[in-house]
Amino acid sequence: MADPIIISASPHVHSARTSKKLMYDVFYALIPAFLVSIYVFGIGALIVTSVAVISCIVFEYLIQKYLLKTEITITDGSALITGILLAFNLPSSLPIWMIIVGSLIAIGVAKLSFGGLGYNIFNPALVGRVFLLVCFPVQMTSWPIAVVNNTTIVDAVTGATPLGLIKEGLMYGETMTQLSAKIPSTMELLLGITGGSIGEMSALALLIGGIFLIVRKVITWHIPVTMLVTMAVMTGIFWLVNPEQYANPLIHILSGGAILGAFYMATDLVTSPMTKKGMIIFAIGIGIITVVIRLFGAYPEGVSFAIIIMNAFVPLINTYFKPRRFGNKIKSKII
User: Which pTM was predicted?
Assistant: First the structure.
């Protein structure tokens, strides 16, 4: 009698790639943007990032060890990435205690209360950022001017972001032609010599990291490209209809958190859809909501809100766009 066939539980296909390796690939991809933030905002960016990373790791350790009494997972890199992404969504002048509060919300509420990595519904870094924005809107919208404050810690000179300048100017009756002299040039937006959150300025640095993630197959092109194309098409329509009241698509793509959100937060493996069709639907939703908030909402930026809103729809998207099941028969056509 032949040896019996032993069938184990799934997964049946194994790979050398682990969650830890994926997280550290994301870490490497974020290095160019971090270096630009150090140049632009100096010690402020270093302090914000260090505090966010350390507090996220410490909170994860303390909660898992003393409250949940589960396995300690601080070495898998997920808390590290949450801390970096949270910092990248904050101004470089934010008080340290607020950064710590945001880290607690990100790790304790958005991640571990759902069961930890792999179970959270919403992107933890964005939950922390939105919580801080709602609770401390003044501090979260005080943007140090680029380069001017790269050697100072307190009493920094502040100014509006490009999207903020456009929103405020149009509100007071200015046209885009008049505002063009106030907002950074396309090259400045591409290189990151502008105000804003510490990780969203340099579109070029973020794109370099994003391409690295695609090449490493950590993410696919479906979410970032679809999201940015959706934003470009929508803003392009409004711009063509009335170029004096709406900014051109390039400004919307290169400004704010569009590229940071598209490549690093919307693509979060846990909170994004499983299938390619689902990813495209998910990304279109993010692009539409972002543009609606930017053009018609109270805030000049909308990427964080859009991603969190679409995170809530991921279970529904996964229900209607499921991967093909192994073992199903495909009906053959009769010739």
Answer: 0.89
Can you give the three-state secondary structure of the chain, one letter per residue? CCCCCCCCCCCCCCCCCCHHHHHHHHHHHHHHHHHHHHHHHCHHHHHHHHHHHHHHHHHHHHHHHHHHCCCCCHHHCHHHHHHHHHHHCCCCCCCHHHHHHHHHHHHHHCCHHHCCCCCCCCCHHHHHHHHHHHHCHHHHCCEECCCCCCCCCCCCCEECCHHHHHHHHHHCCCCHHHHCCCCCCHHHHHHCCCCCCCCCCCHHHHHHHHHHHHHCCCCCCHHHHHHHHHHHHHHHHHHHHCCCCCCCHHHHHHCCCHHHHHHHHCCCCCCCCCCHHHHHHHHHHHHHHHHHHHHHCCCCCCHHHHHHHHHCCHHHHHHHCCCCCCCCCCCCCCC
* Residue 116 pLDDT exceeds 90: no
Q: Are 256 and 200 in contact (CB under 8 A)?
A: yes
- Alpha carbon separation from 41 to 122, 186, 201, 210 (Å, rounded): 29, 20, 10, 22
Q: What is the tens place of the pLDDT at every residue in 142-197?
A: 888 766 555 554 444 556 788 888 888 888 888 898 888 888 888 888 887 777 88
Distance separating alpha carbons of residues 89 and 198, to the nearest angstrom? 7
